[in-house]
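Good morning,

Attaching, inline, the C-alpha cells for the sequence recovery test we're adding to the shared suite. The designed sequence is right after.
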C-alpha cells in the first residue's frame, strides 16, 4: 500500500476493488483469526532471530539467546504461546470479534496454572484489531479485580496491542530477509491489516454517526466478504454499551445481555429478563426483552417450549393485557430515537417460540442512544407476572 493509498476512503469502490485482488485477504476468509495467528507462528519458526528482534523489547527476557524464540499454536486453547529464554507469554489474537472479559478471565486463569512441564505465564497479551471495551483508555487490564479472591501466584495483567502495530513491527524486521515469495505475502498481509484498521477507524470508532447509518456503510464490504466482521463488532459494541448501562441498576442481576452476533446475515444483539413464575419445571421459562437487528428495535417474547400455539398464546396475552409489546407507547416515550413501523401482522416471528413487535431506529440515533433506551425499557419492566401467563 502506498502513501497515497492510506489517505483514500477505505470504503470506496476503488479500495474495495483493489482489496479483491489481495491473495492474503482471500486466504484469510476461511478462518479470519486463525490465519493471522498461524502465519505469525510460521514466521517465528522460519525466522526466529528476526521475530525475536521484532518482539524483543516486549518479551524482555534477560537470558535470551539468538534463535531462542519458540512458539506453540492452539495449545490449551491459547492462540499462541511464545517462549524466549525463561520467559513465557500467552497471546490471544482477535480479528473477527471483540475481546470479552469472561474469555480473557478464563484464559488468564488457565495461563496462570503451574504444572510439571509448564510455568505460569509471565505475560498475557491481546493482539487485536479492536481495543477491548472494558479496558477503557488503558492498555492493560488487571484481573482478578481487587474485590475478587486472591490468586497465587499473582497473575500478570492482560496487555492490549493494536494488531496493526504488531504486524508493522514484524514486517519491518522480517521483510529484508524474506525471499520474493514470502516478501510478497508479507507486503500483502500488512496492506490487509492496515486496510482493516482503516475500516475500523472509519466505521466502528467514535459515536458521532447514527448506528443504522454506520451499519449501512458496511454494505460495500459484502463484495470482499468482510462485512460480517465489522457488523458483528458494531453489535458487540452495542451489547457492551447496554451492559455498562445496566451494571449500576438494581435490576442488573436479573438481566441478561447476549454478545453481539450474526443471524440471517445481519448483526443482532438482545437483552432480556425471565418472567417470575414461568419456570415451573425448570424448563418452561418465558423471556421478554429487546432485540436490535438492522433498523428494527424489537420488543420480543421467547419461550423454552417449542409449542408454537402456546408461545403465541403467551405473546398475545402479554400484549392484550398491556404488559408488553406496546410499541406505540415506546415510540411516544422515545420519539427522539424511534419512529413507528408499518407492521401488517400482529406479530413478527422467526421461530415457533419467538414473537416480536418493533419500531424503527431513526437515522441519527447513536449507539449510546440505543443502549440507553434498551437498558431503560428492560430494566423498568414488571416481571412479577405469573398472572401474565395464560
Amino acid at each position: 500500500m502506498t502513501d497515497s493509498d492510506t489517505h483514500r476512503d477505505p470504503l470506496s469502490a476503488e479500495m474495495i476493488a483493489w482489496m479483491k485482488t489481495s491473495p492474503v485477504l482471500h486466504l484469510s476468509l476461511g478462518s479470519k483469526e486463525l490465519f493471522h495467528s498461524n502465519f505469525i507462528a510460521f514466521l517465528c519458526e522460519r525466522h526466529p532471530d528476526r521475530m525475536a528482534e521484532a518482539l524483543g523489547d516486549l518479551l524482555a527476557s534477560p537470558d535470551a539467546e539468538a534463535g531462542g524464540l519458540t512458539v506453540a499454536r492452539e495449545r490449551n486453547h491459547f492462540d499462541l504461546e511464545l517462549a524466549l529464554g525463561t520467559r513465557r507469554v500467552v497471546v490471544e489474537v482477535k480479528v473477527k470479534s471483540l475481546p470479552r472479559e469472561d474469555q480473557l478471565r478464563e484464559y488468564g486463569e488457565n495461563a496462570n496454572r503451574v504444572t510439571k512441564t509448564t510455568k505460569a505465564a509471565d505475560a498475557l497479551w491481546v493482539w487485536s484489531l479492536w481495543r477491548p471495551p472494558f479496558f477503557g483508555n488503558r492498555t492493560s487490564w488487571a484481573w482478578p479485580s481487587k474485590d475478587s479472591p486472591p490468586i497465587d501466584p499473582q497473575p500478570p495483567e492482560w496487555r492490549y496491542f493494536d494488531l496493526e502495530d504488531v504486524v508493522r513491527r514484524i514486517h519491518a524486521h522480517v521483510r529484508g530477509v524474506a525471499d520474493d515469495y514470502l516478501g510478497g505475502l508479507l507486503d500483502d498481509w500488512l496492506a490487509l491489516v492496515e486496510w482493516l484498521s482503516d475500516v475500523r477507524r472509519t466505521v466502528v470508532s467514535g459515536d458521532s454517526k447514527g448506528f443504522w447509518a454506520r451499519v449501512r456503510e458496511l454494505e460495500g464490504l459484502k463484495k470482499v466478504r468482510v462485512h460480517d466482521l465489522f457488523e458483528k463488532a458494531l453489535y458487540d459494541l452495542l451489547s457492551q454499551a447496554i451492559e455498562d448501562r445496566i451494571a449500576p441498576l438494581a435490576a442488573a442481576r436479573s438481566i441478561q445481555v447476549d454478545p453481539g452476533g450474526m443471524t440471517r446475515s445481519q448483526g443482532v444483539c438482545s437483552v432480556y429478563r425471565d418472567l417470575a413464575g414461568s419456570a415451573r419445571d425448570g424448563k418452561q421459562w418465558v423471556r421478554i426483552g429487546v432485540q436490535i437487528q438492522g433498523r428494527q428495535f424489537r420488543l420480543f417474547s421467547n419461550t423454552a417450549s417449542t409449542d408454537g400455539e402456546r408461545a403465541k398464546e403467551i405473546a398475545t396475552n402479554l400484549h392484550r393485557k398491556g404488559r408488553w409489546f406496546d410499541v406505540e407507547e415506546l415510540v411516544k416515550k422515545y420519539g427522539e430515537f424511534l419512529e413507528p413501523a408499518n407492521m401488517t401482522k400482529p406479530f413478527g416471528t422467526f421461530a415457533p417460540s419467538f414473537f416480536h413487535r418493533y419500531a424503527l431506529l431513526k437515522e441519527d440515533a447513536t449507539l449510546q442512544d440505543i443502549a440507553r433506551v434498551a437498558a431503560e425499557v428492560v430494566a423498568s419492566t414488571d416481571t412479577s407476572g405469573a398472572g401474565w401467563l395464560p
